[in-house]
## 1
Amino acid sequence: MKFSFDEEQHQFASALDDLLSDADVPAVTRAWISGDRSPGLELWERLAELGVAGLTVPEAAGGSGAGPVDLAVAAESLGRHCVPGPWIESVAVVPALLAGTPYEELLGGIAKGTARVTLAAPPVTPYAVDAEAATHVVLARDDGLATATPGPGHGSLDPSRTLHPVTAAEQPSPLPEDALECALDQGALACAAALVGSGDRMLALTTAYAGQRHQFGRAIGEYQAVKHELADVKVGLDFARPLVLGAARELAAGSPTARRTVSAAKVTASTAAHRAARTALQVHGAIGYTREHDLSLWLLRSRALIGAWGTPAHHRGRVLDDLTRT
Amino acid sequence: MTPASAGVSGALEFTEQEQAFRAEARAWLAQHHPGRLPSMDTEEGARAHREWERTLANGRWSVVAWPAEFGGRDASLAEWVVFEEEYYRSGAPTRIAQNGISLLAPIVFAHGTPEQQQRILPAMAGGTEVWAQAWSEPEAGSDLAGIRSHAVRDDTRGGWVLNGQKIWSSRAPFADRGFGLFRTDPGAERHRGLTYFLFPLDASGITVRPIEQLDGNTGFAEIFVDDVFVPDSDVLGTVGDGWRVAMSTAGNERGLSLRAPGRFCAAAERLLDLWQERGAAAPHLRDRVADAWIGAEAYRYYTWGVVDRLQRGGDVGADGSVNKLFWSQLDVDLHETALDLLGPEAELCGRWTDDYLFSLGGPIYAGTNEIQRNIVAERLLGLPRGDNGRARR
């Protein structure tokens, strides 16, 4: 029996973590929030050089064709470092939609990092995120795929995200059967992995803070009320991670139960990240309730991702529908 | 519907040997298991469960992971989990031999003499000797190092004379023998000066007082120990080293062995059947039903992740506490959901009420969940120890 990452995936994860640890991503994200996207786009290029952008692009089209497990590895790392931009959309979702459509030639640019594609896919994803930082905006619906015109952006509760309503700019081209479902699955998987990464970082930040912050003459991490909350965060994340890996491997293997396992992973990762965020805020106290503190980046990102690419309610429904299908 | 524990799922790469092992276990269990038996914590049920242990042993399925010379199949860790999946999937009864197999046997393998191994293990595997644990005392629960029961050296007879009182001893009312810690060095405090003893429950000087549990059955008992002589051959490990010896079982109980994923996956499947029967009348319970099933699936993948890590030379250590926190909460939530689905009929005695009451013990035994959270916070997250978990004098 084998159920773990292989050596190459471990190396990929650590190369990615090294790059992002050195990149001062919180500063990149803060620039992104203030409207200066150039450090973020530069980071996008460097991630593309490492192969992140082309993970789900077939080799023939210029990607690595590495697939869902490597996608999960990358997404967890991008979530852990809170990388800004429409990378779930461009890396995980869009490539699965393009094969066999008039937009197929975009795949090469996506893999190279020169094309950044965002999309709306209503009803699950009604807005296109970060359209002004994208080179292309598309709309994916049951009746097909179309280039889209983004409307004015709405602010998100995560200030690093901007949400755009979109309208089709042309007659949609029909999508191959299952392409939309498959794209949504990859989006949900990447989102789940990013939530695990984000939760993991919030736990680390909070554990460190609880060890340093002293009140009543002792570190607040000595109090059981704090310890027990953090222990529960750890339990949630430790049980979400294998389910994300299981979902990725099932998708890669074309397992008939892959769809519901992806949904199970998204639900579990959302619950775990939510718990991590709530605990992180409570343990940090007032300083956690500021934008000054970097915790706010993960706190708000994770809340946005919980509802992205299928809400927990949507995915719970998918799990039960699949299990009770006759 | 595909059972959660169906096996090869695409994500787990089972070897051909593991798949053949699964098929063999599945076929044997389907043919031999007796279905649900009366509670093993009743006289009638205990007899029926012992009979089932003997049937398992005859098929060499009672202790698959043990060496063949003691009644096992030399099964790998992965094969053991496969067996557990198939066992619970088949609907076979709970195991009266469980405490002996998962708590005592690992210690006998690690610390027992060859004579002890020959005397204890085959009888345990064959279902002829059922063991009860005797850890807690009235003043030593979560704080197990507060043990007061003691043993005094008897050189003339070549052994020890035990005195004291044990409590919450699972299976004791219908078991044959007990195992537990006694203080052999009266001057030593806390974890020091303890020794691991084995003793017959029908010995002169032993009184077993069964205690009625929440479910009405006598699943555990109080054991009064008055001048009970135990020969040196029933000391497990070194005299005075009992704490270290015992802790290897505590880790085991909290870890993989006591709660294999098959049990929760099977319960989640039954919950789904109930949902299909009754869900239309209680649509507001949808999310909880989904979460119970998802929790069982998360537990299954988590377990295979641990197996993979152990196969590659890792260890469980304090992660056993993460595991225990998860399954014990999942078990309660799953059964609460079932009772809520049953509505006003939930209180009618049956499988769901039995299993619900059983689940309520999970957050308490094998180290309460509060103790487990301290372990996770201090040993895995590295938070400062503070003064919890230390004796106040």
## 2
Amino acid sequence: MSQISVEVDGVTYSDMVEPRTLLVQYLRENLGKVGTVIGCDTSNCGSCTVLLDGRSVKSCSVLAVQADGHKVTTIEGLATDGQLHPVQKAFHNQHALQCGFCTPGMIMATCGLLGENPSPTEEEVREGLEGNLCRCTGYQNIVKAVLEAAPEVAQMSAGESPVEPATQPAGQRAHTTTGEAAAASVGGAS
Amino acid sequence: MIPTAFEYASPTTVEEAVAALAEAVSHHRDVKVLAGGQSLLPVLRLRLAAPELVVDLSRVEGLRGVRDDGDAIVIGAMTTHDEVMRDPLVNEHDLLLALTTRTVADPQVRHRGTFGGSLAHADPAGDLLAPALALDAQLVIAGPSGRTRTVAAHDFFTDLFTTTLDEDELLVEVRVPKYTGWGASYQKFNRVAQAWSIVGVAAAVKSDGGTIGEARIGLTNMASTPVRARAVEQALVGQPATDEAIRAAVADVTAGTQPPADANADADYRRHLAGVLTRRAVLAAAGA
């Protein structure tokens, strides 16, 4: 077992994990952040995309121990005070989902893309999301949503990074996912 | 699936990393080096490999970044694809490498995957082997007791997923000679971003007033190792950068190749693709 300390959606968690634990498993099973989904076993689909230090990564292809000392943002860390993040809002407005399974990954990949390129062309959006598959093939509306969100994200990020949660519980909380403490902390953090 | 259980080492220096490898090898333990993990972790998840020890390089100092070293640029083995493709030195002096790296997988994979990891993994369908070969990259390898050696890309790739790296050695950096002012193009044929190249062609061309002065061409997935198309390189010298002249000069690009046959393409189709893609790559690199 290895000791890790990871900031996830603004809260710091300290845990013992097996080295073979994938980051996505850690998020879902240790922290209860099941908003990040697992779609494939081959790094193809991108549905488990999260931001690691602000850059999009596939959390099925990162070990939890590799996230030690780093900052993770999941789909669950985007909305603040009950207000959807501009990218979430744009996906809603444009009906950029059908079954919705790829949506958390699409949204996180979009946040990563807009962090690197605040005003992408349609072509750049399509290329920027090439790591994410939508089995419903609802790409047209996804692209529209990204283009709609871009100006608002750019405005929001004037001053701070668009990919960081705007507000989070004050201070850092130590969190240990063992026994009852785990259940309580998971509830408290979500 | 999740990987089988393994022990995990996270050294902070090259010496520690090499010592961990040497120790494991001396006890006949199966050990894998983890660079960006974008090939290794899928392999572990699918349980195609079950190492007893994984040595993670992500916290090793000094393996990341690009520096200017006179007639070459030096790329740390742990420099990510995203960093390589955006690096001003790479774009100025080794455009072929920058352009090829932009085609590797997708943004998420490029944020984690590394230049050195790709070369050491030596997947014949991996895109970065062909430009490394075509540009005569030199690979700097660290071994036990502070020993280092430098191997030319030409000698580094020996077979499918096989290199001259010993089990207790690490690829630490790659020296790529400068080709400042050369045109470049990587033409890749694949189905989706995440799929491996069915065939890829890397071409760098030095042109002068519409005439090709020098050319370097590497082929992806046309044999168990990357292939340098030297006969075509020579045939291109002195040719005008026109479609007709280039078409004739690249006609024999498949000489010496042994393309695989698989679900994506049979060998004949790969040979056909290699011809088409070489012509396109040379035309683009020559600015025609």
